[in-house]
Predict the structure.
Amino acid sequence: MSEAAAQKAESAGGLRRVGLSGLKLAQFRNYAALSLRLGPEPVVLTGPNGAGKTNLLEAVSFLSPGRGLRRARLTEIARHPGDGTWAVAATLCDPDGETELGTGIALSPEGPERQRSVRVNRAPAPSSQALLDLCRVVWLTPAMDGLFTGAASDRRRFLDRLVLALDPTHGERVNAYERAMRSRNRLFEEGRTDARWFSAIEAQMAELAVAVAAARRECISLLEGAIAAQPVDGPFPAAVISVDGTVETMLAGATATEVEDRVQADLAAGRHADRAAGRARSGPHLSDLVVVHGPKAAPAAECSTGEQKALLIGIVLAHARLTAQLTGDTPIILLDEVAAHLDAARRAALFGILLDLGAQVWMTGTEPAPFSALGGQAQFFRVEDAMVTPADA
Ligand SMILES: Nc1ncnc2c1ncn2[C@@H]1O[C@H](COP(=O)(O)OP(=O)(O)O)[C@@H](O)[C@H]1O
Ligand SMILES: [Mg+2]
């Protein structure tokens, strides 16, 4: 890396500026092949509907563990028509230099692989979790507009992604809890009654349930602080957030060990009813994220569509700032179709916050006009029919 590039990677506010300096796609969604060179500044992608803007953001979201910003099945991602393989290759740039990240589906003798693999500097990584050591990617998409009125499972997943950005081991813990829970459900299904088997699984479930719930509580408490640190008269209303869950609530009034014992005892006592239901009727797999519009003291679900969006933007920005503070690195922020729905004052405030943070934020819109205030401070691209070309502000 050149010295100039290294200097640019040192950000305002003592944060290490982490962003992509290159992105290549092969057989990804509507892209047969794409190669982009990038600077550390915000990236603005404009073009007609269906051009491939969200697909580009989705590609970047695969530089984080999980199913990406669309929660897609892996088979949807490979370009049609094609052989089912796809690849995303990114050059990650930070003050220490560049790292080559690769992910995608390769071809095995039996056909496309069933899991996406991850490579770091061309060496296979044991899991996609390794990506969290290198960068944090956070996003906000139009699909999240119904978050406050929709299913609790979506809010819980949203919360768990917020936790994951702060605590990379959270994802594995949630998965391990769910695996243990499924094993217990299987015992019910198979009509087993051996108490020792149940006790062993329930001990595991209780330990993991407490770890998951404690990590969520910690994240909520840190996020509350980050939200409180934003100016009261800011452009996005302060959210009052909490987590509604049995184990999370128990942790408010007892030590982790006490709660673990109680959860394990409750599971044992609930075996009979759980068997009838075919599943565990309480636990962190049923928790919900509760959001209240602070200034109005109204539940988020009762707010107008615009107010809900503003609340969500406020939460995502506070979380991005918190992630930056805790890791010392700027996160990569993906904001799909956010700017066009804000009035000029809020949009200017959003850009100000993002530029202040120094993060590489990727923003999309059909028209460049809403982004004109970013002229000279962002890199503009025109996206049309899976072709991406540099454009003027
Ligand atoms: N697996 C795929 N193979 C080929 N094209 C795809 C695939 N998945 C999505 N597309 C196409 O990508 C386009 C949508 O791209 P998208 O990035 O969502 O557009 P926008 O620019 O509006 O955000 C659609 O035309 C869709 O048909
Ligand atoms: Mg789109």
In short: Residues 195-228 form the longest helix (34 residues). Confidence is low (pLDDT under 50) at residues 1-7. The chain has eleven helices and 17 strands.
